[in-house]
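#random but structural
TW: two for the price of one
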Amino acid sequence: NVVLKDFNNIHIDSVSYLPTWGGNINGKSLERISVDALSNNSTNWGSSVSLNKATPGKINSITPKDYDLRITSFESENEFGIIGEEIQLNVVVKNIGLNTSSNFNINLYRDANADSIAQLSELISTQQGSALTAGDSLNYNFTTSDFITGNNLFMAFVDVIPDNDSTNNIAFKTITGVSINEERNDIVINEIMYAPTSPQPEWIEIYNRSNKVIDLKNYQIADAADTIKIISQSTILNPNEFLIVTKDSLIFNYYNINSNYVISSFPTLNNSEDRLILLDSLNRVIDSLYYSSAWGGNNNKSLERVDVNSPSTDSSNWRTSKSIFNGTPGTYNSVTQKDFDLLADDILFTPKFPLVVETVSVAAFVKNIGKNSAAFSIDLYEDTNLDSIPDTFIETISNLNLMVNDSASYQFSYLIQSLLIKKAFYVKVFFEQDQDTTNNSFYKDIEPGFPNQTIVVNEIMFAPLGGEPEWIELYNNSDVNINLKDWAVWDVITTPVRATIQNDFIIPANGYVVLTKDSSITNYHRFISSPILELNLSSFNNDQDGVVLKDNRGIAIDSVLYSNQWGGTSGFSLERISSAISSNNQLNWGSSTDIEQSTPGRINSITSKEFDLSVSEISFSPRFPILGEDVSITAKIKNNGSQSAQSFATEFYIDTDSNNVVDLLLSYVNSSNLISGDSISITSTTQIIDLQKKILAAVRVVFVSDEDTLNNYFEKSVEPGFAENIIKINEVMYSPADGNPEWVELVNASSDSINIKNWFISDVLST
């Protein structure tokens, strides 16, 4: 609060100011705009705009004058001035006076002696300005190359008469002059690892394609969002040298880097697409591109530039690294053509997909991808222990020549005799001038396969009921165990889906395996004796679909295109009759006839068997025994096989403790010579004595040669009843009066109480 009083202590003027009025920044005074406006009006005050930050004893800098031109802006688009090139300086002049100005001149000076005083010898250029009306402003552009290396102080001065305040007629601008060495694309972005697998860091390779020695101090890398300085100290990059910028020293765990490198933060690179810019210390773009994953370089492989002389922005000039190390930091890119470069491209086996015990020949396929012809040799090795490291030398082919852009296969004299198991081989090309030896070797294995229908699709549950999962059964037609690891099952209709067996899974010789969508399959069958594998099978269509079985080489071993017209509907499986007949012969398929409605993991119910006895029926004598009677058990044994059953036995059991599990062998009856298709009734030599309650009986036929033992067992219960006429019909109301019911009266003719629960009465005539 400032109060002005005269010598008589009479109040003359006062002001109560706040910091928000102005005058509180950088040593500037608080100036009054108009002496005619109120002293305590905040809009009548403001910070001084004088170059001296205040105007003591002078008219205030913010007080309107009759005549007053001011330089309100003196700027340049250039932070740096490149020696030998022009820069542009922009001056804005405004009439802040109350009257129209007279014509004026704007002078541009370079303060050569750094005294901040404009001198005639320092004058660069003058532009004339026409009279400005009060409140108007005009822009004036100056272009000059008159500056030196280092800091240059430029001054702009408005020369006008009359002007009541000349302190605002001058403005200053400092421009740093620099000498330029490198130009755009002297250094190029040459390789980018934007999608590494953790913990490998992201990294960028740059390459000096010029003949200049370039200092990378204060170089920067930017993406679409951020700009980060990557080098703070002097770092020299010589002609034809590489430099790696990596986020972490972990890069050395993955590559042998012989070039210069810096460990520095830089913007995180997006895996889908991103902008990448290399900037020098003057913020000039040295190289830039906008890559996308479609260019290549994803899945832990770097994105390599093909040609340093072709545009960075051309997608065809970028490819995924072909290096066995997934990248080539600090050396020539794998996709860049070298002067001398041979490529070991493949090992050729003939036949391509051999069967077990076939003889296989071996050849190396080599390409000349360099710019000059090549003279070379090739070595062949075997990896006997399959550890991916060659350990046994086999053969050399020498004195070979290959022209530019040519390729050829070279046959070794060595032959793989009687291929039985998986084998692996390694070829290495020896070429003294080769500039990229990382592609001079090739490793490949060969594994014998099995003929078509060695393993067949044998049963399909495509329309289960009651919650049973879908499943398929495979049968091994051969005499050897086969590992189904990496084999796959496909469906056919709509969009085929593959389910691959990921781990070791053996199908026995002449045996079965069951592939199921869910392990709950075991809840729907008494016993599944063969191996079961839960697999993410496709859902099979109930009208028409197919099942394709492919081995670990992708070769189809069996396939079937089924229809519900073949059978296998309503909870019954579709069973194959013969594994030797075509899979796509409708007559070779039908619905299961098994009591369980399917036969997973065992011989199919409709498959012809040489030896197959079954218990087809159990009967009791007397048929309806009464309490206390002795009961005989008779079993009907049928020969379902194509051969006679020469010797077999029939076992008779009963449950003595009423837990529904038979626990007592009543008798054992031997039989012989039951011819194909015939049946025989065999009666237990021991009866059930004094039947007092419901008893579970079971029969099992024992036949050593039997091919399907699940039908060798049968259970049935027998329960004592009452003697005839123990309860009699004693009275019948068959014609009651209207509204009264019909009824029957029974009388118990015995001396015991009788529970007639579940007894029933029926008439005889009509229905």
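TW: number two ↓
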Amino acid sequence: MKELQCIPEVAGLNYEDLCIHPNLDLPEGFKVPKFDVFGGTGNPLAHLRVYCDQLVGVGRDEALLMRLFSRSLSGEALEWFTSHETRQWPSWNALAKDFIERFAYNVEIVPDRYSLEKMKQKSNESYREFAYRWRKEAARVRPPMSEKEIVEVFVRVQEPKYYDRIMLLVGAKFAEIVKVGETIEDGLRTGKIAVFFASYDPRVC
């Protein structure tokens, strides 16, 4: 208890110091919406548009826009926001401008076919999560890829434990490949992959 009493006060930890527009009161009856979250990847301008759309009716209140913005952020984006002094941004435009400049590289660095073939499934993501992340990047390639090309490239990026089975699905739809990939993933996890595929022909999917 004595140790706690000896901890010196740290400046800048008051509510007024940590909060943007600390004197702002939310409008009566206003319910904070569940915002789409930006984690540091994707188009920052698109996120701002969605964020403002979710505040339709109260979005002209600049203080409210700034006050709630952190609720639409996570991960790297939230770390960026909280690393700044709350009074650094005198206006919503200043905050939005800094936000776009910070994450503009997401738009400037457009993936190509080569980078797609280098993408690998992370150890902490499921097959579906990897497929979704990969497909999202494939949609940004210019010139656009055909569905047939998307499937062909996706098959080539498979890990060895998936490849010998997924390769039989060239010509299938992307969603069908994902379903089979999840089945393989489940079989690997339960140890039943050999038994399962002894009576399973993925070409009939």
